[in-house]
Design goal:
alpha+beta, two-stranded antiparallel sheet, 2 strands, 12% strand
């Protein structure tokens, strides 16, 4: 529903991101998804769902796009 790549949905300032070298551009989407599953705090949030659409509401003004 978000229509973004795993790289676009990952929090890059978290310790786990840096410690696991997730900035490595050769990592596949699968690798990034595995990291997000292992360290759930890596996923960008909040994710807002409304009417079959979803967005990452950062900055908060993005919320206006789907309400």
């Amino acid at each position: 529903m978000l229509k973004v790549s795993p790289r676009e949905a990952i929090r890059t300032k978290e310790k786990e991101y840096k410690e696991n070298n997730l900035d490595d551009q050769t990592l596949s989407d699968f690798d990034l998804i595995e990291a997000i599953l292992k360290y759930s705090k890596l996923i960008e949030r909040p994710i807002i769902i409304n009417g079959g659409k979803a967005i990452i509401a950062r900055p908060p003004e993005k919320l206006l796009e789907i309400i």
